[in-house]
Amino acid sequence: DIKGFAFDLDGVIADSARLHSKAWHQTADTVGTTWTPELAENLKGVSRMDSLEMILKAGGHENEYTQAQKEELATAKNTQYLELVKTLTPDDVLPGMKAFLDELKANGYKMSVASASKNAPTILKQLKVMDYFEGIVDPAKLHAGKPDPEIFSLAADVLGLAPANVAGLEDSGAGIQSINAAGELSIGIGSELSEAAVRFDRTDEVSLAAIKAKLA
Ligand code: B16
Ligand code: MG
Fold first, then answer.
1. Whose CA is nearest to atom 14 of ligand 1?
2. Which of 15, 18, 19, 20 maximizes ligand 1 atoms within 8 Å of its Cβ, making it the mutation to test the pocket?
3. Which of 36, 72, 39, 67 is CA-nearest to residue 54?
4. Each residue's pLDDT tens digit, 178-187
5. Is 204 one of the catalytic residues?
6. Spatial separation of the C-alpha atoms in residues 30 and 16, rounded to whole Å
7. Known binding site for Mg(2+): residues?
8. Interface pTM (ipTM) of the complex?
């Protein structure tokens, strides 16, 4: 049975995707790639450098920049993103998630964070939800990002639990694949997450009772 929960951050706990999009949109303008909703969607859960590569490729600019220039572009994006992150408050926790964290804590479940974001600690502090978590997987130490199972396997290690006793929450397809490959129970939030064992349309639908009902 489930004894712990591993949370994705962007799209599950925080509405930070719109801030990533705002900052990446500027990068796209800089390199001459047309910004589209599809591009924005495809960047969810993808690491910073891989996101930049996708933006360059979308406009056919992948061979126009040296590695050093790419790093400059990624750093500029992150500087702008962190300016936007400063505006986050506890009100920016996605609907229902604070209540779900309280419910899990009250019922003795352990929680960890499995986010591709190197800024996760900053965001969790800004949202004032840091104290709920036993730990955060450091994405800088990963050999492979989502959909590789590594990040969600490490999120179970942080909890001191076997993967079979852990449920992972994700809003991206790559994240759901990572959870499934780690041997954990996948809970998808959003549409088009057909590989999720349990799926909700919105964050405010997630509760222990609702998860149990869907598994029954
Ligand atoms: P950073 P998640 C992901 O967070 C975002 O969805 C993705 O858009 C972002 O590029 C990635 O983190 C890396 O973020 O630039 O802050 O290190 O969904 O895995 O919580
Ligand atoms: Mg996400």
1. 117
2. 20
3. 39
4. 999 999 999 9
5. no
6. 22
7. 8, 10, 170-171
8. 0.92
